[in-house]
Design a protein that fits this description.
The protein has helices at 34-38, 82-88, 107-121, 133-145, 159-167, 178-190, 209-212, 216-226, 242-256, 275-279, 304-312, 322-334, 341-355; strands at residues 12-17, 23-24, 45-49, 78-80, 92-97, 125-129, 148-153, 171-174, 195-196, 233-237, 265-270, 317-319, 364-369. The protein is α/β, with parallel strands linked by helices. It has three domains: 12-62, no CATH class; 78-100 and 213-369, Rossmann fold (3-Layer(aba) Sandwich); 107-210, Rossmann fold (3-Layer(aba) Sandwich), CATH 3.40.50.1100. It binds zinc ion.
């Protein structure tokens, strides 16, 4: 397939470390900031813009690659949930339904820019360590632009996700453990074979910075629709915090541009203590093991970008239980929103932060519903009632 090379936004001046603020030339730094890595304090780099437009008229002007054909990601619905707002005791409540993206999750916002960057540098194969939404999304976007794609997964991968990845023509490879996936990815990236979408370092940094930059658009869309008075708090189901950081950075960029006085508070929701423990003083580079059915936000690690996002937007972290998330998944489905279990955690996290007094009754809250429930695989325990 013959394509025009993606055009880099002329406002981009390089990549800036989110920890030490050093700026590096535009290139790929998959293991984060070289200076911080040298100090054994891994931290992501982020796309650095020398200025922002004075308005949100053209959202593309705020993005790293402004013009390129896509599958139509973004501009997802912001659905008011008035009954739930009343029940929980907040002034207003909406859910940003990222399940409405082309492959059913927020990952499409990242995949679009990963494949554009891969095209721009002439890479032929993109790759990710994923057992879920990220793998399906990258496979679809690679197929759309004619790139090869490899997804490194584990043998017990959900069959619905496996089917979609194989239908998109990507290669699936399995490793015995989730941790081993990162080593395989690291070896093939260092050999120059694959262009990675996801992290492979231990301790981890965020995913590919060109991809993570794509999550800023969620902040831009919420701001365009609600302004600032109608959004005081945002809750984000979180593991290694690509999405959390992207939304926080989007609002910080709006503040830098003079369009927002103060960003909303942005809160992480997690299935067991990781970010919350790091916020309480534990070393973010440690291991935080735990078990949960919320696999899209599982994993035993924390990234520096999670702490950076929460600090920049005066946020917090809520730890929730699987059982409560299951109840909230059902309640959201009864409101017409069938989301995956990890997405429903945003609502569970809101209940927790309201009960703790972190979120007050005058709050106007946005939940980020990260992914559709349709890919979730659950065996049925009772037959459908038979008629006729
Ligand atoms: Zn640094």
């Amino acid at each position: 397939m013959l394509r025009e090379l993606p055009r880099l936004n002329p406002r981009v001046i390089g990549l800036r470390c989110i920890r030490c603020r050093a700026v590096f030339p535009i290139a790929d730094y998959f293991e984060g900031c070289p200076i911080c890595l040298g100090q054994n304090m891994p931290a992501s780099l982020a796309i650095a813009y020398h200025e922002f437009p004075k308005s949100m008229t053209r959202l593309a002007d705020w993005q790293v690659y402004p013009d390129h054909p896509t599958l139509g990601e973004g501009n997802t619905p912001l659905v008011p949930l008035e009954g739930l707002a009343k029940e929980i005791g907040v002034r207003a409540l909406c859910l940003k339904n990222e399940g409405a993206n082309p492959t059913g999750s927020q990952k499409d916002r990242m995949s679009r820019f990963v494949v554009e960057r891969a095209l721009a540098i002439g890479a032929s194969t993109v790759a990710a360590a994923s057992s879920g939404n990220a793998g399906v999304s990258l496979a679809a976007y690679a197929a759309h632009v004619g790139l090869n794609c490899v997804i490194v997964t584990t043998p017990e991968m959900n069959p619905n996700w496996r089917r979609a990845i194989e239908m998109h023509g990507a290669t699936l490879l399995a490793t015995e453990t989730p941790e081993r996936r990162w080593q395989v990815l690291a070896d093939r990236v260092r050999a120059g074979d694959w262009y990675p979408a996801t992290n492979f370092s231990v301790p981890p940094v965020g995913s590919n910075p060109f991809g993570v930059d794509g999550y800023r658009s969620i902040a831009f869309e919420i701001f365009r629709e609600l302004g600032t008075s109608a959004c005081s708090d945002i809750l984000v189901p979180t593991s290694r915090a690509d999405l959390l950081w992207g939304i926080a950075r989007g609002y910080c960029d709006l503040q830098t541009a003079g369009l927002v006085e103060k960003p909303p508070r942005i809160h992480a929701v997690e299935p067991f203590g990781r970010i919350s423990k790091a916020l309480a003083g534990q070393d973010y580079r440690g291991s935080f093991p735990g078990h949960s059915a919320l696999i899209s936000i599982g994993g035993a690690t924390v990234t520096y970008q999670a702490l950076d996002a929460i600090a920049s937007c005066n946020g917090s972290a809520a730890v929730i239980k699987d059982k409560a998330a299951r109840d909230d998944q059902r309640q959201l489905a009864h409101c017409g929103l069938y989301l995956e279990l990890s997405s429903a955690a945003a609502l569970t996290g809101l209940r927790k932060l309201v009960s703790q007094g972190v979120i007050a009754s005058d709050a106007a809250v946005v939940l980020v519903g990260t992914a559709s429930g349709f890919s979730e695989f659950q065996p049925f325990t009772r037959p459908i009632a038979f008629v006729g």
